[in-house]
Design the sequence.
């Protein structure tokens, strides 16, 4: 029996009906799907029904923060929208039975602080705390995700996320390691996961080129060995995106065809082969 549960981030399926998405993942042996944090894109009753029909669950919600909804923005209105957005995503997670929502203390592509860094950090802690308490009240965990230096000035490595986590007073919060960002920022992906230990509640799996595992230069064996050794019981969630500085734009334009059937099938098959080599 596999020591892992597998999920796939649905952003690259944008534009497809939900049944097509769920059928694909079920066919290739996935346990779950990670939904995009855009509640308007989904009919929650349909998600529950279709997932049940295909024998998969929703692992997680990948929140999409923007300049309009930023937990650490010096402008009070944008911070409020950031917190409101987190509440909405927590409700979405609860509706579809997802145990985890991803939380980012800053927004994608914000390359400089807009206020002194200490101040933004305090705001991030305060608002992650508020968002996390709400998520807890609806039975959802929050996972803090670092992004690489070309996507944020703020939290780039897991040790920084762990420091932030230590400032929160939440039993439902953990850290989330995305292998694409880690391949750029961590000395060793496996060692960074090992240091996170029991605080690691979610993962995004990708090769160094953000394509299917096995197509880049990350070494998956020590990574899977570590995840198994630390008793990671969350989902190995493929988050694969096109090789461009504007991956979300490319996805919207339909330039991610190989990320549907081809990479979904290849990714899980590759990792299941590595599983056989673990001690
Ligand atoms: C999201 O999970 C992520 O990894 C980022 O690159 C920003 O979307
Ligand atoms: Mn990610």
Sequence:
């Amino acid at each position: 029996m596999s020591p892992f549960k597998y999920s796939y981030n649905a952003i690259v399926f944008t534009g497809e009906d939900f049944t097509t998405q769920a059928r694909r993942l079920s066919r290739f042996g996935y346990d779950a799907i990670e939904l995009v944090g855009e509640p308007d894109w989904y009919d929650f009753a349909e998600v529950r029904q279709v997932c049940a029909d295909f024998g998969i669950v929703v692992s997680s919600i990948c929140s999409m923060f923007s300049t309009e909804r930023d937990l650490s923005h010096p402008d009070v209105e944008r911070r409020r929208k950031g917190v409101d957005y987190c509440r909405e995503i927590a409700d979405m997670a609860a509706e579809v039975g997802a145990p985890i929502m991803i939380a980012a203390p800053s927004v994608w592509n914000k390359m400089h602080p807009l206020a002194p860094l200490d101040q933004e950090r305090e705001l991030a802690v305060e608002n992650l705390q508020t968002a996390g308490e709400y998520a807890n009240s609806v039975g959802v965990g929050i996972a803090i995700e670092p992004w690489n230096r070309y996507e944020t000035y703020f939290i780039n490595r897991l040790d920084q996320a762990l420091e932030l986590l230590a400032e929160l007073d939440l039993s439902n919060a953990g850290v989330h390691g995305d292998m694409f960002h880690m391949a750029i920022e961590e000395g060793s992906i496996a060692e960074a996961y090992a240091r996170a230990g029991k605080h690691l509640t979610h993962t995004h799996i990708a090769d160094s080129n953000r394509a299917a595992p096995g197509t880049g230069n990350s070494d998956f064996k020590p990574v899977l060995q570590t995840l198994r050794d630390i008793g990671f019981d969350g989902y190995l969630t493929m988050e694969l995106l096109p090789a461009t500085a504007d991956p979300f734009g490319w996805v919207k334009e339909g330039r991610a065809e190989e990320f549907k059937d081809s990479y979904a099938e290849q990714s899980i098959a590759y990792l299941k082969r590595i599983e056989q080599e673990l001690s």
Summary: The chain has a mean pLDDT of 97.
